[in-house]
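sorry for the late reply, my laptop died twice this morning and i had to redo everyting from scratch. anyway the thing you sent over, i finally got around to it. pasting the sequence first so we're on the same page, its 160 residues, then the predicted structure underneath. double check i copied it right bc i was rushing
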Amino acid sequence: MKRNLIAFILAFVGLLCTTPTFAVPAGGNFPGAHVKAAAPWTSTLPSTVGCFTAVTVASGGNCTIAAGAAGTTNYLTGLTISCTGATAVGTAIITLTNLLACNDVYDVGLPALATGAETITRDFSFPIQASASATSIIATLSGGAANNGTCNITLHGIQF
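ok and here's the structure:
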């Protein structure tokens, strides 16, 4: 009795596990025969974009990721700001503009000449999108501070 039950179960499982085969009628007369195969999937990889600028604190300046061609969008993936060489301790204010959600402001300490550099590095978990297609992303250091420090501003991102 047990052998018959085991044989029945194995036969039933074997029926469930087999792949059925179907014959295709000659001439392609079956549902879907008139559908052409889809074109192979293609992808456009993003371009790497960025900028590096050395800006004196007294005069100010900016670092710009240039706008791409129509239909492309810039995304900021990170930044590095390093300030040094000030004649007196102070603060440099760097503003990121043309971002989708808001402008972003960084206050970077300006150490005196002999004390080294103050560096801020940010790598964003998710790229920050520019406010519109074919729009540049700009980091601006406002000028007018009394000391003569220099800030190196580096922006890096992708564009597609």
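The chain has one domain: 47-159.
thats about all i looked at so far, will dig more tmrw
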